């Protein structure tokens, strides 16, 4: 929160996206996140800059965890400050949707008693399935942490 505090801000919005214990009726064991690290950080920085310009934010921090994220733990954190709460709420939701749509992060859904499945990091019935061959040969980083401030 210290990274987004500002004397001109009347609101700070925090969002933490966590791994839930089920998805589409299946018990979730954990999620595994992987990223094309350099490009993902560049994309997160672009999203942060766009949100500041569009919503007149005083500060923004975007953090996406990589590697294993067990049930109940956070995978994405968004913090932002704004002179007014309405803009802060709108910007927080928009920043999340932009991150999910654009940041080069993939997740492997690990279900109890089943083989895991790689998917694009997007919402939907089951996300967009990604084949192992699509992930091979990319400058991926597993287990690291990305942020844009």
From TrEMBL:
GO MF annotation terms: molybdopterin synthase activity
Name of the gene encoding the protein in the UniProt record: cnxH
SUPFAM superfamilies, sorted: Molybdopterin synthase subunit MoaE
Presence of keyword Transferase: yes
Annotated pathway: Cofactor biosynthesis; molybdopterin biosynthesis
Similarity comment: Belongs to the MoaE family. MOCS2B subfamily.
UniProt entry keywords in alphabetical sequence: Cytoplasm, Molybdenum cofactor biosynthesis, Transferase
Designated name of the protein: Molybdopterin synthase catalytic subunit
Keyword Transferase: yes
Organism of derivation: Coniochaeta hoffmannii
Biological classification of the source: Eukaryota, Fungi, Dikarya, Ascomycota, Pezizomycotina
């Amino acid at each position: 929160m210290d990274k987004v505090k500002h004397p001109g801000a009347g609101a700070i919005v925090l969002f933490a996206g966590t791994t839930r214990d089920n998805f589409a009726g299946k018990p979730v064991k954990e999620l595994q996140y992987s990223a094309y690290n350099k490009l993902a950080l560049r994309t997160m920085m672009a999203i942060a800059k766009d949100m500041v310009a569009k919503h007149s934010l005083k500060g923004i921090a975007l953090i996406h965890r990589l590697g294993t994220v067990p049930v109940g733990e956070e995978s994405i954190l968004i913090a932002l400050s704004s002179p007014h709460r309405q803009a802060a709420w709108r910007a927080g939701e928009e920043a999340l949707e932009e991150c999910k749509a654009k940041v080069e992060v993939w997740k492997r859904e690990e279900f109890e008693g089943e083989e895991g499945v790689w998917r694009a990091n997007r919402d939907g019935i089951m996300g967009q399935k990604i084949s192992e061959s699509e992930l091979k040969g990319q400058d991926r980083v597993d287990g690291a942490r990305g942020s844009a401030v």
